[in-house]
Amino acid sequence: MTINWKKVWLIILIVILSFAALILLFFQTFGFYRVSGTSMEPSLKNGGTVTLLKWDHSPKPGEIIVFSHGSYHFIKRVVAIEGDTVEGKNNTVYVNKKPLKEEYLKTKPSFQDFGPVKVPENAVFVLSDNRTNSLDSRDMGPIVKDKIRGVLIAY
Fold first, then answer.
1. Among 68, 80, 88, 116, whose Cα sits 20 to 30 Å from the Cα of 24?
2. Which residues contact 24 (CB under 8 A, 6 or more apart)?
3. What stretches pass through the bilayer (predicted)?
4. How far lies 102's CA from each of 88, 111, 122, 144, in Å?
5. Is the dihedral of CA 89, 94, 97, 99 positive or negative?
6. Which pLDDT score is estimated for 154?
7. Alpha-carbon gap, residue 128 to 131, rounded angstroms
């Protein structure tokens, strides 16, 4: 029995190219970021790693996103979407005049009043879970969806 080396090398080449294509697809679909800072505590810990789905640029309220602002990437929670009006008063966030239920927070954060802000088309309003000392839409304004890198799927 003779070995057809052309077929063997063709199979090896196909396996290598398939593996390379899968790796490329994986990294085009998923992103990995290291949490830097305490702005999302208690949900995300400083130094932890998060995984996001890069293709999702239409997050829903309550989801955590990664977005770029200037030369930095931020990880924040979406609290309002386009068309919503968001306001913070007396340490409570209101979306469309209804108090926001934030079960993900262990303690109610204290923060300065803000708004009301109507979220423009093609944008979201984000807040940190730890609102005492953090940059979010209260400072940066609503986040345009083009700046969203993805929605967290594992943290």
1. 68
2. none
3. none
4. 13, 15, 24, 23
5. negative
6. 83
7. 5
Mean pLDDT of residues grouped by 10 in the chain (155 residues)? 88 95 92 92 92 87 95 95 96 96 85 95 96 90 96 89
Q: Which of 145, 143, 150 is nearest to 128 (CA)?
A: 143
- What is residue 20's predicted lDDT score, i.e. its pLDDT? 96
Answering whether pTM is above 0.70, one says yes
Rounded-to-integer distance, Cα 142 and Cα 122, Å: 10
Domain span holding position 101: 31-154
**What are the residues facing 72 on neighbouring strands?**
69
Task: Give the domain CATH number at 107.
Answer: 2.10.109.10
How many structural domains is the chain composed of? 1
